[in-house]
Inverse folding.
């Protein structure tokens, strides 16, 4: 599904590569977790895969579509749930979803039914006509997710989709993502919630300094490390305990 | 097409949900145009109706000073306060208590009379008409100076008009004195008619005509187009803020991942904000036509001009929206977009001739003015409202406005594509 080859990104004026010669293959139907400390290159990697920033070198294809030559078709295939809410606060949930759905070419009855279906699944149907500005963080996260899946993407990128939400909202989001995955959507997600990633992902990669340092199924990574009881132990073992404060 | 429609609808919703912003967008230009026209009209009337207090120190106490007093009273523009000392009026005017003082020099009437008599006698002597009573020796008469004191805060234009008024009054006195002197020398009977001192040359302003109705340019014909254009161009502030907000909210990031081109996003904004400009234009026209007369202001004459004025407003709106799109594309924060946008509109208005007519600007500024889209718009509006021209005559100006819109929009798209190239 996703084939990444020698992908690198060095920001203008930066001393080091945020992503460096990264190779990765993500298979169709996987829930793939990209884990790493702050500044490891997770968001940069996701941003390149979503056509938000230009790679310095390297290439990638999604469903055999090249990110340079097949940009338009590729955008139609992917969905992105950004870290920010990325919604218009003064518009209602329905209006936001209707607009973003339209940008994928959806309209009329199909769009309307799709919006109400997802709002219902996410427990937000009664708030369809309420403005986003009065929504709680968890409600906004769920709308943020719906806005990215209305067009039923083949691959969904999520950049910390459960950050700042309560357990209830988190569970709804994760359950729905699992359901989407069962329906055939490949999921690539970044998170600092290692416990969540351990149970949610079919495979994870831990990246640091822009490079993948280990990848595999969470359970196998835990069992292959003698001192590890969970994914967090594996994470610490590979990335260390040092703070990662740098600019 | 559906994406464009969805973009237009979204922009429309964003606009109408911001009630405060919407009110400012429509009400402030109306407040602006009413205030400016009231001020300009009242300052125009004040010269004609209200009285300006003038301090006069009359050291002459003769024919000239009494003529100046009479002349000023007759004009009904001035209220005269007579003071004794020049130092006193100097202090009062320079402190701003009064705006103007005139000091008439000692013996002005006597010396002027003497000077004219000497000159007339000299002329007549050249013609062999020397009077028997003519004095044998000429007395040397020094030039006289009427001193004017102005409040330093007074504008140059006011000073110039006052100076010119007094100069005109003194010239008249001099002329009449010369006539009188000749008459005295040539006729034994002072009451007999010799010279006709009535004005020979008069002025008649011919105004452009539209069919049978004569159009007299008034403050409404000048102000409504000028300030409508100013309001139209102010659209760049809310438009650029709208775009910067999308960047800070993250919605622009989402749009960049969507299969939609930047030109569709801009087209949606163009349609909605252009509509706002046109509504502003119609509101301004309505105010000019219906509210101005109620407020005692001259009415805006739109008979036979509305369609062409609408065309000018449409293309001016396009130019303004293009500028807003460019600013919104380039600006990174509201702190950049809002102050820059507001200041830039004021600069464009100044260059465009909204405050000071372009022909009064220095040559270099006149050249720069030709590059201001507000200048093109204002000229086109004046062509329609004051010069009564047809569509052909305004084509160059609306063509430039349209090219400006195309240029700014294309630059916005190129800039965005380059900046966000993947």
């Amino acid at each position: 599904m996703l084939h990444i080859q020698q992908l690198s990104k060095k920001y203008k004026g930066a001393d080091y590569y945020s992503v460096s010669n990264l190779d990765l293959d993500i298979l169709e139907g996987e829930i793939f977790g990209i884990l790493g400390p702050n500044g490891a290159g997770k968001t940069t990697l996701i941003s390149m895969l979503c056509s938000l920033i230009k790679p310095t070198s390297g290439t990638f294809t999604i469903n055999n579509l090249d990110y340079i030559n097949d940009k338009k078709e590729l955008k139609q295939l992917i969905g992105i749930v950004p870290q920010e809410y990325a919604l218009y606060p003064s518009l209602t949930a329905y209006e936001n979803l209707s607009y973003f759905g339209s940008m994928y070419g959806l309209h009329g009855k199909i769009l309307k039914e799709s919006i109400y279906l997802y709002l219902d699944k996410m427990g937000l149907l009664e708030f369809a006509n309420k403005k986003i500005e009065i929504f709680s963080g968890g409600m906004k996260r769920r709308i943020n997710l719906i806005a990215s899946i209305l067009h039923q993407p083949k691959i969904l990128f999520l950049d910390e989709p459960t950050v700042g939400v309560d357990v209830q909202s988190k569970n709804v989001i994760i359950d729905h993502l699992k359901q989407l995955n069962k329906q055939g959507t490949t999921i690539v997600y970044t998170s600092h919630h290692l416990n969540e990633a351990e149970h949610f992902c079919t495979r994870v990669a831990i990246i640091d300094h822009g490079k993948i340092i280990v990848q595999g199924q969470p359970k196998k990574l835990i069992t292959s490390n003698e001192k590890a009881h969970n994914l967090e132990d594996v994470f610490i073992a590979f990335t260390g305990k040092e703070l990662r404060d740098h600019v | 097409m559906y994406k464009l429609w969805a973009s237009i609808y979204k922009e429309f919703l964003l606009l109408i949900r911001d009630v405060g912003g919407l009110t400012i967008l429509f009400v402030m230009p109306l407040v602006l145009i009413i205030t400016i026209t009231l001020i300009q009209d009242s300052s125009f009337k004040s010269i004609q109706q209200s009285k300006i207090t003038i301090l006069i120190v009359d050291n002459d106490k003769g024919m000239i000073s009494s003529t100046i007093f009479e002349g000023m009273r007759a004009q009904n523009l001035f209220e005269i306060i007579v003071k004794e000392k020049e130092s006193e009026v100097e202090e009062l005017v320079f402190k701003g208590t009064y705006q103007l003082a005139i000091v008439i020099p000692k013996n002005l009437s006597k010396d002027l009379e003497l000077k004219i008599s000497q000159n007339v006698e000299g002329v007549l002597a050249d013609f062999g008409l020397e009077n028997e009573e003519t004095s044998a020796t000429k007395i040397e008469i020094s030039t006289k100076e009427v001193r004017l004191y102005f409040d330093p805060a007074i504008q140059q234009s006011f000073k110039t008009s006052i100076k010119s008024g007094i100069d005109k009054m003194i010239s008249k006195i001099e002329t009449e004195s010369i006539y009188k002197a000749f008459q005295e020398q040539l006729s034994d009977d002072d009451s007999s008619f010799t010279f006709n001192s009535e004005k020979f040359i008069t002025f008649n302003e011919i105004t452009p005509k539209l069919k049978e109705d004569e159009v007299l340019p008034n403050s409404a014909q000048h102000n409504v187009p000028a300030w409508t254009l100013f309001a139209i161009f102010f659209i760049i502030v809310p438009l650029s803020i709208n775009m910067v907000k999308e960047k800070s909210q993250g919605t622009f990031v989402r749009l960049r991942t969507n299969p939609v081109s930047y030109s569709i996003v801009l087209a949606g904004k163009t349609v909605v904000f252009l509509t706002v400009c046109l509504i502003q234009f119609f509101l301004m026209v309505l105010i000019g036509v219906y509210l101005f007369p109620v407020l005692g202001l001259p009415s805006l004459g739109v008979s036979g001009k509305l369609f062409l004025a609408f065309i000018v407003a449409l293309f001016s709106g396009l130019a303004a929206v293009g500028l807003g799109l460019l600013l919104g594309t380039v600006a990174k924060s509201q702190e950049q977009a809002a102050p820059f946008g507001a200041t830039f509109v004021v600069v464009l208005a100044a260059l465009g001739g909204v405050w000071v007519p372009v022909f009064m600007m220095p040559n270099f500024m006149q050249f720069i003015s030709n590059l201001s889209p507000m200048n093109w718009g204002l000229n086109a509006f004046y062509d329609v409202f004051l010069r009564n021209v047809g569509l052909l005559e305004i084509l160059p100006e609306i063509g430039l406005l349209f090219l400006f819109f195309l240029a700014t929009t294309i630059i916005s798209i190129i800039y965005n594509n380059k900046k966000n190239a993947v």
